[in-house]
Amino acid sequence: MTITKLATLTASGVSSASFSGISGSYDDLKILGSAHTDDATPSWGNTTPYQVMTIQFNSDSSSVYFVSYGYATGTTPTGVTDGWTSYTSAQEISVPLAPNSYSSQDDFSAIEMYVPAYSGSRQKKCRVQGSFMTPYASAGGPNPLSIMGNGGWDNTSAITSITFAANYGDFVSGTSFTLYGISNS
């Protein structure tokens, strides 16, 4: 297996960042990132310390995405909260991966995304995972939040661009995404 760094994006003061012109000469893609937003708008009607970050392939905003993700937060077996969310016919892959201004200003998420067979002629799928610390006072201070999800794009076109966007607000300085091409031979 050979891993080749293809590009790095830094995002500050913008609500989205995109890789474009992705070559089809690799077997798989991997993206490592770290994100934080300036948003102070409550997500899902409450004051959660994170917000949803969306992912689109080839700027396609038609309702052809699907996603399923789970999360866990807590520091003790009795204090763990978990859940699972799934949806289809979405306009993007959405996962709660960007800490916002309700979280510590120094807390950035750790994001990993893997897209196998991205240039093939079959439906595309990906695995996305991330983690960051949340400052839930009810949990007695900082609390780890871990998210693991699977998503897909019901399209047979090769992926040539990937866009990451904050649902609300802008990414802050220090946000970055690095794209790698993986050759399996």
What does this molecule look like?
- 0% of the residues lie in helices and 53% in strands.
- It is mainly β and 185 residues long.
- The protein has one domain (2-39, 51-113, 120-183): Jelly Rolls (Sandwich), CATH 2.60.120.
- The strands form 2 sheets. The chain has an 8-stranded antiparallel β-sheet with strand order 1-12-3-8-9-10-5-6, with no helix packed on it. A 4-stranded antiparallel β-sheet has the order 2-11-4-7, with no helix packed on it.
**How big is the Rg?**
16 Å
Question: Approximately what portion of the residues adopt beta-strand conformation?
Answer: over 45%
- First-last Cα distance: 6 Å
- Poorly predicted tracts of residues: none
The oligomerization state is: single chain
Order of helices and strands: EEEEEEEEEEEE
What is the CATH architecture term?
Sandwich
Look at the structure and give the mean pLDDT.
79
| Record field, number of beta strands | 12
Largest sheet, spatial ordering of strands: 1-12-3-8-9-10-5-6
CATH class categorisation: Mainly Beta
> Largest sheet, if any?
8 strands, antiparallel
Number of domains: 1
Q: What helical percentage do the residues reach?
A: under 10%
